[in-house]
Model the fold of this input.
Amino acid sequence: VQFVESGGGMVEAGGSLRLSCVGSGFTFREPDISWVRQAPGKRPEWLTSIDGSGRRRNYVAAVKGRFTISRDNTKNTVYLQMDNLQPDDSALYHCARRQGDRWYQLPFRGQGTQVTVAP
Done:
């Protein structure tokens, strides 16, 4: 199982970014996929997930209404559209597949993509 995340960068508060995550090594269309972020010195924070069909989505309150998760199973890719970014959104962003009753599998299977939001 491997994920390659991309699309991060530095933006000013109020800006937008679109992250991409390409998965391999498993049947991509089957599992729920989540986005998880981790700031330095903090525990991973689950943000959002999408089921295999792309019809069911869940969000943590902190990002609901600002972030949108989607997937394209023909491209083995999950996306995270992030709008109205704030400095507290600065972190390393990972994608991960669901494992049993856990939103995401650890350790992360990719390098992540860094998001930095300037005030």
About this structure: DSSP finds no helices and ten strands in the chain. The radius of gyration is 13 Å.
